[in-house]
Amino acid sequence: MKIATFNIQNLFHRDRSLLDTSFDDCSTEWAMEIDQLMAKIRRTDKDNLRLRELSCMLGIDNSLQLPYAVVKRKSGFLFLKGMNYSKELKAGELTDWNGWIAVQNVPIEPLAIENKAKIIADINPDILILQEIEDRASLEEFNMDLLPKFKCIPFKHLFVVQGNDKRGQEIGILTRKGFEIESVRSHIFDQDISGRNIFNIDLLEYDIQTKDGNAIYIIASHLQETRNDNELTEIFRRDQAVRVADTYKKLFAEGKQYIAVVGTLNAASFSNSIIPLLQETNLRDVTQHQSFNVDIDKGNDAGYFSLGAYQKGVNIKQKDYLLLSPELFAKVKNCGLNRRGVWPEKRPMWSIFPSIHQKNEAASEHPAIWVEVDV
């Protein structure tokens, strides 16, 4: 049986707020230019076009955006329906409306979508946990339409629970025939003593029955990503890690033997914020198993170890983890990391798919981790 975890960074569309931006250096100049254009008594069409460009680059157009909107036809007119939208926003022959709408989601490069499917086809797991997917409908389409293109049989079962984040960062699970999802438990309502939700995305518990009648328990989460207020980020992430660790300890105390904790922890193994998981439980990281297999860096970096990297010769910062209970770790036959879909923007360099020629064609910024166990 093979288990894999992969932060796929969305399937077809990605929220603009999650995309990297290289505009910071020019933001001051752009803000000044907007002020100058707005101060004009009369603005030309060229001025208005430039205002639209600047508002997009500075993120001003994000202020009134909503997670969704629906365009409906009524009495010969097109209406934009959504929270706080009125009937005045309509297009028709009489109004001659020449407006524009900024959408919050950006379509992903088609080659990148195919490379996401290639990664999964390469690993071909029996149980797959994906982080950062849009929704169940997108996952179903990806499963049925994209995977077969790369000779990967679609998964029989899939399940998605909408978490606390509204930017399309859901956690989903897919399983093959013979691996039944018996139960799913969400922790989106878990709160700390102040009444704040602990998980900005979610913590999910899966009970899966294997072909041989064994029970596998998978705990999947996506912890707080690093923000500008790094100290506060560490506090939030540590609170989340404590709750994940407590969830694991509870299952282990109940006599559950085969438990896996997977997901994007958004911190290197030495980070204080994830000590509750890595040092205060008996969980074992598959990257430390003797069978761990990965294409090492090219050139001089092959013999180098970077602080926070997966291991010597795999010099990318570890954010994604596949942790196993002692009993499940003892059953490991083989394990590895697939980063053929990750764009090596700077040194180190490693082997990638021939179809990737630039960063926006990469499958994800995260590698996929997998483990094969004899259960």
From TrEMBL:
GO terms for molecular function: endonuclease activity; exonuclease activity. InterPro entries: Endo/exonu/phosph_ase_sf (IPR036691). It comes from the Bacteria. The keyword Hydrolase applies. Keywords: Endonuclease, Exonuclease, Hydrolase, Nuclease. SUPFAM superfamilies: DNase I-like. This is Endonuclease/Exonuclease/phosphatase family protein. It comes from Christiangramia echinicola.
